[in-house]
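During the no-cost extension, the postdoctoral fellow (Dr. R.K.) reprocessed legacy sequence entries with the updated structure-token encoder. One reprocessed record is reproduced below for audit purposes.
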Amino acid sequence: MRIGIDLLWVRVGKCGGTESFIRSLLDGFQQYDTKNEYVLFAARDNAGSFRHYAVKAGGRMQLYVCPTDSCSQPRRILWENLHLDRTARKQRIDILFVPVYSMPWTWGSRIPYVCVIHDLQALHYPRYFSRLRRLFLRYEWAHTCRRACRILTDSDYCRQDLISHYPGVKDRLRTMYVPIRVQEYDWSKGKAELRPQIRDLAQRDYFYCVSSLLPHKNLDTLLQAIRQIKQQGAWGDSLLVLSGVGGDTKQLEERLERYDIGDLVVQTGYVTDAERDYLYENCRIFLFPSIFEGFGMPPIEAMQRGKRVVMTRCSCLEEVTRGRAVYVDEPYNPGEWQEKIKEAASLPEKREVFSEYTPEFIVGHYMGLWEELGGKQA
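Re-encoded structure tokens follow.
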């Protein structure tokens, strides 16, 4: 079968976990699916970042560059809705996979659509979004739930959340976990490619956290816990290393100054996959204070590299980490964070194996879905 994949939405380096998800999945399709062909529908400004798939897949993956740009979202959305389905039919696509919520506004299409709704964040945290954006998302979710042949989501928590808001989707909805690659490195050679700031951190004792400044990431509670530990004289010369904060960090800087812990926090900004993995491997403990995720890759990635993780049980997080982390029951309680960090520090490192998230395992489920839908077409 020929599977089309919509990549027009990918703004390279700006889509966070959703971009990591699709690139891990493409790696898996390239390596493990020798049965199907894939046509990658890319935009002019992101096609270069996907070209290597077409080069390495021996003809099983083709790159089709569409005359639009991912960075111009209104124009991209318009092109996607007016032309993607027709373009896919011309490319003889059997199934069109849209790895995000925005199924094109097509009616009477002969192509089965498979879409992914990663979470319903705008319903739970409407203050993050403009009124126009909320209306757009609600329309897109409803349209996708009505029209897509199959809807996939990242966890059973998200599956139940979708059913509660869109009950009619239940029979077409499926949990499909996110593939997570464990990249092995020869740091004696690869370390030279890291930024000096990242390399030098290996000489220090530090805790690691991947977070943004959005309120549901709950970073402020973690900072308050560190302040308490410092005030008690128990922090020593350790550091908290923050990656992925991004955007306007003025508010963060003000909090660090107010809590008198600015000298204890290192901000790395955006990190490459190799830099992130290096920081995982050399940290003492990984801290993840978030209270809402569709899946939550960072804790799993850290646990796969042997690190103890302190995190909340909220949303899907205990589900996807399989109960193997150190969990905070009161996520807004700095005192409990302090206690759980101390508990985790007393535990030996343990490299966890999550076979259910390997690309090979996940790709097998996707191949089963392609076969299921292909059989229905026949």
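The mean pLDDT is 93. The CA atoms of residues 64 and 364 lie 25 Å apart. The remaining legacy entries will be reprocessed before the final report is submitted.
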